[in-house]
Amino acid sequence: MEKERKPWWLYLNLLGLDAPLIAVIWLFLFAQTWRVDYHPWQAYVALGFAVWAIRIAMKLLKGSMSSDETSFAMAHKKPLKVAAVITGVFSITLTVMNFPLSVYPYLLVGAVFLAGYFALTLFSPQEGDEIGYAQHAMGGVAFAFGTALTAHVYLPGLGLRELMLSREFICFAVLCLLASSAMELWERSGKPAADGELGSMDEIALSLPLTLLGAAALVFAVQDDLMTARPFYYSILTGAALLQVLNRTRGRFGLDTLRVLTALCLLIPGIIFRSYPAGG
Length: 280
Known about the structure:
Elements: H1 11-14, H2 18-33, H3 41-65, H4 72-75, H5 77-98, H6 103-123, H7 133-152, H8 160-164, H9 167-189, H10 196-223, H11 230-249, H12 255-274
Helix pairs in contact: 2-3, 2-7, 2-12, 3-5, 3-7, 6-7, 7-9, 9-10, 9-11, 9-12, 10-11, 11-12
């Protein structure tokens, strides 16, 4: 059977490049919001390569757990493994050589979150109609923590507690977990065996938190008298709104297109408000 050629724009997701792009864009927003005076370029490169290595590893893990041997990850598993090893080693090298010693407690906590995410993915049932909210919550926290720590570690006098309790970290983690759980909801809703009542509950479990997140981001933006955090919260608000729109119009798109559009829901706000002038 002749292999179907994929559209070029799908490779953003197929190669796992969506996650590192999102991480780097939002890292800039974190650094801008927190007014990080010294933030070397190595922080962005190390984060991008680390996220790409983890994204590839997760794709290979999910591909090995799936019965579909024709998936992109399984069809290209050897070069993807090589890419994951090279990018992972390069990221570790940059981290050791350029980050302050205070980064290691952050990395330890981040490793715990990441291990929890991999464990939940490994032991979560692949069949059935229930959404793996615990898995998506852990993934959202791990991704947001890894992104935010790369800026927070350069703030003098602040530590893990301040990061975990910051509004910016919490909002971004919630946005990430909602984007992840939305994709699984859309994948499972296409199955004919999906239970109608369960599907309705999942719809509410997505739409209501997105609405609350957008409202909270708007309130936080208004409360920011110095206007230094407004670009960040506008990005959260815009991302939540775009996910709401995509959820309402998802019937027009295939699953591969939805994966790319979901990534764009997080990329576009960061790109737009990246250059938004901060006050103060």
